[in-house]
Amino acid sequence: MTVVRRLSDLPDGRFAPDEPVIALTFDDGPGAATDAVATALAKLDARGTFFVVGSVAQEEPDLLAALVTAGHVVGGHSWSHGRIDDATDAELAEEALRTSMLIEDATRAPAPLFRPPYRRVDAPRWDSVVAPLGLQTVTWSVDPRDWALTDPVAIATAALDHLHPGAIVLLHDGGGDRTATLEAVPLIVHGARLAGYRLVTL
Description:
- The chain contains seven helices and seven strands.
- It has about 200 residues and is an alpha/beta fold.
- The mean pLDDT is about 95.
């Protein structure tokens, strides 16, 4: 499979390269902000794609089910969120497949999407491992570095300044205090819509 970096890379051909659509994606959950992010999106009549860490998500099966029921998409973000440097291919495959199976059990929905943790440059190796398992590797094309910022306006500005047709925006709902990200979500949604973009899920 091809690593998906923009929406037009999706193999189902849903989106043309110049189509004014973007996807907001959220990594490292479920966390303290996950439910609040989902609620904020619902108030905005928007949906997101949540890439969850299996070892954390196993404690929140009802939340995963609620996300899918609300129209969001849930994909895997590995089981342990570890780095790949010293991992074997078999270990990586188990990390991805175990998380996908957990999501499917919790949501009763397919979970074919996988996002590698940490570096985008690791995606080709992950893809070589997970593609034979039927999983689609997804990275991103816009990174506002919300994990490093505490000002929601700065996060929103960093996202909006780099939007383009088919953008996949990387945000975080877990792994730390995500209050600023939560407050940035409405700013990003409103700003994207004013710029003529439609929000979609993967």
